[in-house]
Amino acid sequence: MSQPSEPTPGTSGTGTSRPGISRPADPLPDRGSGSGWAAGGTVFAGVLLFVDGVLGVLKGIAGIASNDVYTRIDDYVFKFSVSSWGWIHLVLGVVLVLVGWGILSGAAWARGVGVALAALNLIANFMWLPYTPVWAIVTIALDVFVIWALCTDRSRPGDRARSV
């Protein structure tokens, strides 16, 4: 006296499809154990790197064009000329723009390079603190967020590109 088993949705007892009932789409690929905040943060990190790179380029151009734009520091361990700092920020800014664009386009290499460059930008802005303290602290905080977002997102970049 066994009960007949119910057919699975989308099929009849004989294995043929029922008219009018559609099968659900294939499930989404496993996104890993990363948080939704980190996945959304990765896109935001790409935007932040891109914008921080543009601002770094502008900061660099200002330092190269005129030595009087930023405060001169007499006794400071990391003393460079303002023009040297301008070139540092210009080159770092251009590379940040390229990596930010790579993160936004889903390039696999961009996340690792983004972490390294955000760390390098953080160090450069720490050394830049006496020249523009408020902006340097803001940039350091943004770089910390970028590093966190890029390190905690465990989804594959290709999955993110397909889901958009």
Secondary-structure blueprint:
Layout: H1 36-65, H2 82-104, H3 108-127, H4 133-152, H5 157-163
Helix pairs in contact: 1-2, 1-4, 2-3, 3-4
Written overview of the protein:
The protein has 164 residues and is mostly helical. 61% of the residues lie in helices and 0% in strands. It has five helices and no strands. It has helices at 36-65, 82-104, 108-127, 133-152, 157-163. α1 (36-65) packs antiparallel against α2 (82-104). 23% of the residues are buried. The model is unreliable at 26-32 and 160-164 (pLDDT under 50).
Share of helix among residues? 55-70%
Gross morphology is elongated
C-alpha end-to-end distance: 52 Å
- Tell me the total number of β-strands: 0
What would you call the structural class? mainly alpha
Mean pLDDT: 76
| Uncertain residue ranges | 26-32, 160-164
Strand content: under 5%
Number of helices: 5
Major sheet size, sense and barrel closure: none
Over the alpha carbons, how many angstroms does the gyration radius reach?
25 Å
Oligomeric description of these chains: single chain
Question: What's the SSE pattern?
Answer: HHHHH
